[in-house]
Design goal:
The protein is an alpha+beta fold and 179 residues long. The chain is 30% helix and 25% strand. The strands form 2 sheets. The protein has a 7-stranded mixed beta sheet with strand order 4-3-9-8-7-6-5. A two-stranded antiparallel sheet has the order 1-2. A hairpin with a 2-residue loop joins β8 and β9. The radius of gyration is 16 Å and the shape is globular.
Length: 179
């Protein structure tokens, strides 16, 4: 009888997708804290935190969830056209800001392994329904990671996956997704 092959979860690409207690933005992320309590400590997510506060979504993301959040870094927000972030943070733009932010949230706790399973089951593509009501398309990036495509054809790579929270999971992304 030949030796059993290792399970897919044992591959180095999958192991790289699931660091234990990862550092994000110079701060440790703790699985016993909620999404907001962890995000406020990441120096790479100050723009996202400010946007979540401006949109009035703090209480939602501190709620029971579970939520899967694709969290753009400050550098991701800087890729937007000049003035976009400042404009979205204005009180009269709260509805538009809320649409953009909730487009980065998927109901449930979808970790990297589950997302890869959905991609495999979908013959290389998984469609994710966002809290905003739109869809994101997830695919393997060909390097063991995941790339998301938004409604406008923009692409964002998951740079840190599986940042576990008590009310869900965060996947750090390098580009803001647009509904």
């Amino acid at each position: 009888m030949p030796p059993a092959e290792p399970a897919a979860a044992d591959t180095s690409a999958d192991a790289a997708m699931a660091p234990s207690n990862p550092m994000v933005g110079g701060a440790p992320m703790y699985a016993d804290k909620d999404i907001i309590d962890n995000a406020v400590n990441s120096k790479d997510h100050t723009t996202l935190v400010a946007a979540v506060k401006a949109a009035g979504l703090v209480d939602t993301l501190k709620g029971a969830g579970p939520f899967t959040v694709f969290a753009p870094t400050n550098a991701a927000f800087e890729k937007l056209p000049k003035g976009t972030v400042d404009s979205l943070l204005k009180p009269d733009m709260k509805a538009d800001l809320t649409k953009v932010l909730t487009y980065h949230v998927v109901p449930g706790k979808v970790d990297g392994a589950a997302l890869k399973q959905q991609i495999a089951a979908g013959n290389g593509s998984a469609t994710l329904k966002t809290v905003q009501g739109g869809t994101l398309t997830a695919k393997d990036d060909g390097k063991g990671g995941i790339v998301l495509t938004d409604a406008k054809g923009g692409m964002s790579h998951v740079t840190t996956a599986d940042v576990m929270q008590k009310n869900g999971v965060i996947h750090v992304v390098d580009t803001v997704l647009m509904p």
